[in-house]
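Appendix C: a fully annotated inverse folding record. The material below is reproduced so that readers can follow the format used throughout the book. The structure is listed first as tokens, followed by the designed sequence.
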């Protein structure tokens, strides 16, 4: 519950095997395609969380494999924290790629 309380993903905890890149066998995509897919998935998830909130109120609606049973508001917070974590990763990658010296030929 550290994550939901303080709003940060724990450091050093590897992603579970089923959630690592390559597990879904998706074809490679560029940034624009991935961003479009992310927007679609966020919209769908937002609608489903709203539905659960209206249907179940403050009851727990589903179980996370590590965090256990969560309410709709906790699921929403988890996903906000999770996407911020990945956006931070992307910023670090972008910064590292920007630091690579160009090859002059």
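Designed amino acids, in order:
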């Amino acid at each position: 519950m550290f994550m939901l309380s303080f709003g940060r993903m724990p450091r050093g905890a590897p992603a579970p095997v089923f959630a690592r890149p390559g597990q879904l066998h998706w074809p490679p995509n560029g940034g624009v395609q991935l961003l479009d897919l992310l927007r679609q998935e966020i919209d769908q998830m937002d609608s489903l969380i709203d539905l659960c909130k209206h249907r179940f109120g403050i009851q727990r609606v589903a179980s996370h494999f590590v965090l256990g049973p969560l309410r709709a508001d906790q699921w929403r917070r988890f996903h906000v924290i999770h996407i911020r974590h990945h956006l931070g990763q992307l910023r670090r990658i972008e910064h590292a790629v920007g630091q690579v010296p160009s090859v002059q030929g």
